[in-house]
Amino acid sequence: AAAAAAASSSLGASSRPPSFRNAPSSSSSSTLCPGCASSLSPFASHVRTAFGKWHRACFKCAGCGNSIADGSHAMKDGRPFHVRCYRDRFHPKCTVCFKKIPFEGQERYVPGGMNDMTSSGVVKWISHPYWCDATYCPRHENDGTRKCDGCERMEPRDAGSTGASFAELPDGRALCLECASTAVVDTERDSTPVYDDVCQFMSELGLPLVKGGVSGIVAGSGGFHDTFARENGNASDGNLLWRHRPPLHLVSQDALDAADGKEAWHVGRTSRTRGLCLFTEHVIRAVERVPRWDAGFAGGLIPVGFAERTVGAPRRGETTVNAVVVLYGLPFIAFGAILAHECTHAYIRIAGGFPRLAPKVEEGLCQLVALLWVEDVAARGRAPNGGAKDGGATTNGVSNGSNGDGWEERNLAAMAGDVANQIRTDPSETYGNGLRVALGAYRNVGLTAVFEHVRATGEIPT
């Protein structure tokens, strides 16, 4: 899930001020007033706090500038605040309903008009790992508030008046404006450049989507591209380089769920399926026809027919990858990660020679390649709609060498970090632990050795 529970803190009025993690510690025996940095006479009137002694005249609220007459106060970055001023400035606000997130726990009235403050309650909220400034009241999880289908950010109330309304897809899913700005909705204009980039990235890893697998191909050597250029002409002519790759289709969630039900690959998985590799596996069986005899027919001299029986164990024949399908409307980074995952499924079947793999092994390898692609794109940077930014050269819709630091680059970096974090922290046994085992092997022996070992043994090297 994209939303994560955040740690809670409490505010209250008491003779002892609340402490905060970001408040600097200072010895209470200091002879300098933190307010004016001048000496403090031991006989002068002063205020003692957990963060030092103050001249009474210096002990003023950093919010309103008025003196803090009683002992009820809060500290922030070494500066004192009235409890009310602290709450007005720093109490977490919900970015859905725009109200202060309420306290939970036993309530009691606090002097000074803070009749909704508690001394024993806590503030609990939900935060988003991608949108760090997004905090939500927990109740919005179950009150029908819409979530972005790309990053699971919650839609603010009255979003239309604030200019933050979500874009709605034809099938009813919604996207926040940031995810909608890079959404993949068109096969030729949006998905083809991403498919080109994933194919080239995988070929440079030694995992090309062509018959023959990695035989004779050195990752990053350019030999694969040179071979295809000789056989198929200029590799820069559109998709000529990848003309034998499986077709890519953008589909709705209903169509994806229907196909997934027929494939039965994700049985028992609780998360939503967003991509599939559709393939046909041919099974070869040796069949022997033997005559059937009947003593009552022609004295048993003429067979009455033939019976068929399978000889030996069936063996796997050629596997045909029919298509790669991905849910339409996803933001670029999420779409590319899913596409890289499904293309790894396709590679295993196109290259051939792999035994039937356990789901944890195969899904772990697919998640590994998806993670490597996300990290690679984040390092290179990408201009939306395939355009280079600030003079950066562009290849297959991904800008290389761009030195831009605009909104698009920050959005890309943040979304890439979120997607990579989701891949790395997936709690499931098949996908999450499968990825972590494959990632450990990759770090130890490298990607080529990992795939060669899996091809030979069906297991991830340890």
Walk me through what this model shows.
The protein is of the alpha+beta class and 462 residues long. It contains eleven helices and 16 strands. The chain has a three-stranded antiparallel β-sheet, with no helix packed on it. It has a three-stranded mixed β-sheet with strand order 12-14-13. The longest helix is centred in the C-terminal third of the chain and has 22 residues.
What's the structural blueprint in terms of helices and strands?
Blueprint: E1 4-5, E2 46-49, E3 52-55, E4 74-76, E5 79-81, H1 83-90, E6 103-104, E7 122-123, E8 126-127, E9 135-136, H2 159-162, E10 167-168, E11 174-175, H3 177-180, H4 187-204, H5 223-232, E12 248-251, H6 253-263, E13 275-292, E14 305-327, H7 332-351, H8 359-380, E15 393-395, E16 398-400, H9 407-424, H10 429-445, H11 447-457
Parallel strand pairs: 12-14
Antiparallel strand pairs: 1-8, 2-3, 4-5, 6-7, 8-9, 10-11, 13-14, 15-16
